[in-house]
Give the backbone structure.
Amino acid sequence: MTRKLIGRVGVDSGRLLIIDPFYLSGTWGEYNKIYGLDDNDELFEQLNYPLGHEGLGVVFRSGLGDGKYNVYGTFKEIPGWGTRITKVEIELIDEES
């Protein structure tokens, strides 16, 4: 397995969202304003589909708020599938801090 920097994500709202981009398209316009964590002290929130079941996404507070955060991918050769990303990590606070 190999871990490498795959990009950086900018934050201006103090939070990040993991979601299938399909749900942010015009077809799913009702999801375009999913922010979560409005005025509470929670560090994360499971976002649910309109019928109430989980899986729509996860929103969480980003490290120390606004800024740019490194995103790392772990890659592995999967027999019959080739190289695949097996894990994605977002470094919210440097381990040395």
